[in-house]
Amino acid sequence: MRINANVELDAGTKTFASGLLPELIAALRRSDKGDLVAVISDDPSIGRELESWCRFTRNSLIDTAVEEGRTRCVFRYGEPPENVGEDRPVGSRLWLYTNFDCNLACDYCCVRSSPKAQRRELGIERVRRIAMEATELGVSEIFVTGGEPFMLPDIGEILVACAAAAPTTVLTNGMLFAGSRLETLRALPRDRITFQISLDSPTPERHDSHRGKGTWARAWNGIQRARAEGFRVRLAATVSSDAEAQEFRSFLAAHDVREEDRVIRRIALRGTAMEGVALARADLVPEVTITADGVFWHPVGAEDSDLLVSHDIFPLAQSFAAVRRAFDRESDHQRRLARIFNCA
């Protein structure tokens, strides 16, 4: 997907050694903090140069692609967004993408899930091994997501295996709690499993515009069903503005939803989203994420090559170590810059 930018700068053959920097500075003067700036160049090395410049200037390189033989780089102007969870040890949270197929086709899904997506199933045997090895690695929380996890016939076994290793939260749209799936739900341990169910707005209009007609009502029914079965339920909204976030907070307060059971996040410019917050790896505190394709830096980009850490899942200790090494390299770079440019 081509990322649209607020400013397009055609650098031609210029590099940082031959006049690109003044043009970049001029482009930033025409931009606001948070704007996306695209640099198009005939020189394929521009990506490496721009990445180094972004690190130095605390901008974030979002995307690099080749279009019709020319390199197009997109960076976000300004400091990265404030991270949540910076004090959380790397590896204490573990995310599992059990599958990628879904009963919905949400228009901002960060991993492109839909009824047409290939399942790419992680599988119960790998989940069991992951859960077993996770207990030795300091994992204190497991998050199970998809796709829609309840599309899987063995989701009950998967969740029981995860819950045996650590308290587990399953992210779901809450629409499939019927028939045999309801029986699966009822067999799960209430003290070890939490449901995080998506509900994007206080009324159906905005939620349904993103997820499909009638989905708000079905999600609300799923929330009530999970609560009636004795499970803790967290409500998660994906919003596009501060106003939408505040509106949802008021709705949650009116329904006596505790602060710790509220999740409000912005749309990320990943997957099928056409707009949202553009996120680079440097913007994200790593949360080890495992899919059928390997180990990723963070769940928001668990299908994107820039967040892939390793194709090898096992042994899990090596996967965790690879993420920690990558995080240490990022941190060391920032500390070196701070030392070099200590001006007083």
CATH superfamily of the largest domain: Aldolase class I
Please tell me the CATH architecture of the largest domain by its name.
Answer: Alpha-Beta Barrel
Q: Beta-sheet strand percentage? A: 15-25%
Provide mean pLDDT, rounded.
90
Q: Pick out the low-confidence regions.
A: 336-344
CATH topology of the largest domain: TIM Barrel
Measure the end-to-end span.
44 Å
Largest sheet: 9 strands, mixed
Mind telling me the CATH class of the largest domain? Alpha Beta
Percent range for helical residues?
25-40%
Total discrete domains? 2
Number of H/I helices: 9
Strand order of the largest sheet: 10-9-8-7-6-5-11-12-13
Shape: globular
Chain-wise SSE layout:
Elements: E1 7-12, H1 20-29, E2 36-41, H2 46-57, E3 60-67, E4 70-76, E5 93-97, H3 124-134, E6 141-145, H4 155-165, E7 168-172, H5 179-186, E8 193-198, H6 204-211, H7 215-228, E9 232-239, H8 242-254, E10 262-266, E11 288-291, E12 294-296, E13 308-310, H9 316-340
Parallel strand pairs: 1-2, 5-6, 5-11, 6-7, 7-8, 8-9, 9-10
Antiparallel strand pairs: 2-4, 3-4, 11-12, 12-13
Helix pairs in contact: 3-4
Description:
Helix 3 runs parallel beside helix 4 (155-165). This protein is 33% helix and 21% strand. The chain has 344 residues and is of the alpha/beta class. The strands form 2 sheets. It has a 9-stranded mixed β-sheet with strand order 10-9-8-7-6-5-11-12-13. Strands 1-2-4-3 form a 4-stranded mixed β-sheet, with helices on one face. It folds into 2 domains: 7-76, TusA-like domain (Translation Initiation Factor IF3, 2-Layer Sandwich), CATH 3.30.110.40; 93-317, Alpha-Beta Barrel (TIM Barrel), CATH 3.20.20. Strand 6 (141-145), helix 4 (155-165) and strand 7 form a beta-alpha-beta unit. The chain is globular and about 65 Å long. It starts with 6 loop residues before the first strand and ends with a helix.
